[in-house]
Amino acid sequence: MTAAPDTRPRRRDAAKTRRLLLEAARDRFARDGYNTTTLRDIADEAGVNVALIARYFESKEGLFEACLTAAVDELRHEAGDVALDRVPQIIAAQVATVGPHGPTGQLMLLLRSSGDERADEIRRGVLRTSAERLAAAAGWRPGDDETLLRAQMVLAASLGIVLLRVSGALEPLMSAGEEDLSGPLGELVGALLGR
Amino acid sequence: MTAAPDTRPRRRDAAKTRRLLLEAARDRFARDGYNTTTLRDIADEAGVNVALIARYFESKEGLFEACLTAAVDELRHEAGDVALDRVPQIIAAQVATVGPHGPTGQLMLLLRSSGDERADEIRRGVLRTSAERLAAAAGWRPGDDETLLRAQMVLAASLGIVLLRVSGALEPLMSAGEEDLSGPLGELVGALLGR
DNA sequence: AGGATAAGTAAACGAATGTTGACTTGAACC
DNA sequence: GGTTCAAGTCAACATTCGTTTACTTATCCT
Q1: What pLDDT is stored for residue A183 in this prediction?
Q2: How far is CA A179 from its chain centroid?
């Protein structure tokens, strides 16, 4: 019997607690912002000790940075090059799945400033490449500032909708489903990045 | 010589320092959010002593609430009932004047949560009536959820653009002027609340 | 079985923050 | 001029937060 990977749940599992911390941190950071969220809140929500954050993520900024890069990976995985007419559906799906207590609040992380220079750098990079990918779907070539501006406005609109949904308590926007959003979003994208 | 109101600058002027504190607080709250901003920062920026905040505004939450109501008054003053085709210009003007160090960051206050229940109540009220006024310009009547949803999406888009301009460092969106924004905004509004 | 090592815990530190109270100073009024 | 009271200052408080340190306990290896 050679080395079969042990799949039994271990009472002490570094990878698991690290993952629990990361998930809890993403939820809290996305919902409440960087400065409002305390490490003790995160640790409690993950059910582990506060000191473990320092062990696994060095510091609070390190944890936030890990949240950002994790979100970046998921987003990158999700969307490659897409056709323009599928953009509204994708945005609607992303926006709709972000409820006040929803699981996928990655988008919100892009708006939550930490003050940390490196985290801000990552954040800017994600926003910039997202806008460029969006613009590219509308036939953007480097130098075409008008199209890029419009793509950034689409991105800004999407983020604004997410923000109001998670923290705004505006009806009917908050409880609107993907099917309610995709229509108006389609017209919005069509108007800005036009057919 | 009867009681002519004394217009000479007084070395000690309660109303003036109160105003200085309020302006400094609005700038910092709008730019950095509630929890990130410290009372000592605000007092330093206003050039007065920290303890005066407690005297004039009771507490930090009281100060934030004062900022919100002040912003509400200005916004209410600014826009009564307007025709739909003038909406994009108004939004563009509001959005354009909000630079990273600009003076009028009232809109951002609507997104900065304080956690305080009464402040959140005010915030929700402003957002709700703004959306309804916007919807009314597009012929909305109570019960018409589709139009209201679209008006809220316009509002969300505007706030998202402001947010990315003040904290995003996205070019060309950040340095776009009112004349660059009014065109695309017009198409956005037209598409969502459209004729 | 027994030690070695990683995983987890508990408690405390220093710094920063909101808030409070006593004190000082300037201006208005007699 | 002297009194009075608001306007402004100073210093300290109790908490909270991020972080560190020393300690305990479970799991793996020989």
Answers
A1: 92
A2: 21
User: What are the tens digits of pLDDT across the range B48-97?
Assistant: 999 999 999 999 999 999 999 998 888 777 766 778 888 888 888 888 88
C-alpha distance from A70 to closest chain B C-alpha (Å): 20
Looking at residue A10, what DSSP letter applies?
P
| Cα A134 to Cα A149: distance, rounded to the nearest angstrom | 11
From the C1' of D26, which residue's alpha carbon is nearest?
A: A12
What are the domain boundaries of chain B? 14-193
Is the minimum distance from the CB of B44 to strand D below 7 Å? no
Token couple for A171: 């009806």
Q: Which pLDDT tens digit goes with each residue over A117-143?
A: 888 888 888 899 889 988 998 889 999
Write out the CATH class of domain A14-193: mainly alpha
- In angstroms, the CA B91 to CA B137 distance is 13
The distance (Å) linking the CA of A80 with the C1' of D29 is 46
Alpha helices, DSSP H, located in B33-116:
39-46, 51-57, 60-78, 87-96, 106-109
Contact yes or no for A42/A24 (Cβ under 8 A):
yes
> How many C-beta atoms surround the C-beta of residue B22 within 10 A?
18
Task: Please tell me whether the overall predicted TM-score, pTM, comes out greater than 0.70 for this model.
Answer: yes
Handedness of CA A131, A133, A134, A138 (dihedral sign): positive
Whether A149 and B176 lie within 8 Å, measured CB to CB: yes
Cβ atoms within 10 Å of A59's Cβ, excluding its own:
12
CA distances from A186 to A97, B131, B162 (A): 17, 20, 22
Residue with tokens 């108006």, as numbered in its chain: A184
Give B32→chain A minimum CA distance, Å: 8
Q: Is the CB of A52 under 7 A from strand D?
A: no
CA of A159: how far to CAs of A53, B118, B160, in Å? 29, 26, 6
